[in-house]
Amino acid sequence: MIEGALGGFAFKTCIRFFPRRSKRDFISVENRAGCFSSLGKQGGRQVLSLNRNGCVYTAIIQHEFNHALGFTHEQTRSDRDQYVRINWNNIQSNMAYNFDKSDTNNLNTPYDYSSLMHYSSKAFSKNGHDTISPLSPHPVQLGQNRGLSDSDIKRINILCKCNTEPEPVKCSSKV
């Protein structure tokens, strides 16, 4: 399952993941509590948790590896207030940090409601009500579980210079 999910990066980007042989910097996929990754390259052993009970799905695997590449959640973008409203009163208090706005480099790409990195409308709701409401006048779905969106792919290609470099490059910047 993990190799198949990582193949989704190779299909439309220059990103390739290889089994570790002797590299000093590497991602260690571990069965810990929850689904999580550090943001961007940390150096040395970098833990990416994919708990066997709930995290081993293509979209979740790709989501966590996107974090390892340096991508934040879409709803934390610096320009998010133009596109969504965060309903703080509906968010579980211990999960509110996932909705904090960040100072991001959006790589001159539009806000993507359907990004793999966007939470659903009821993510971490404490009462069943929306935690994120789109401001779009048109119907939109927040987040999805099908895999990398076109904008996700475009951002990876921009950040990692996939279209301008002949060889795959090491991608370590935070976005």
From TrEMBL:
Gene3D superfamilies: Collagenase (Catalytic Domain) (3.40.390.10). SUPFAM superfamilies: Metalloproteases ('zincins'), catalytic domain. Pfam families: Astacin. Binds 1 zinc ion per subunit. It is an enzyme of class 3 (hydrolase). GO terms for molecular function: metalloendopeptidase activity; zinc ion binding. InterPro entries: MetalloPept_cat_dom_sf (IPR024079), Peptidase_M12A (IPR001506), Peptidase_Metallo (IPR006026). Keywords: Hydrolase, Metal-binding, Metalloprotease, Protease, Zinc. Its cofactor is Zn(2+). The active site is at 64. Residues 1-163 form the Peptidase M12A domain. Its EC number is 3.4.24.-. PANTHER family: DISCOIDIN, CUB, EGF, LAMININ , AND ZINC METALLOPROTEASE DOMAIN CONTAINING (PTHR10127), HATCHING ENZYME 1.2-RELATED (PTHR10127:SF839). This is Metalloendopeptidase. It comes from Knipowitschia caucasica (Caucasian dwarf goby).
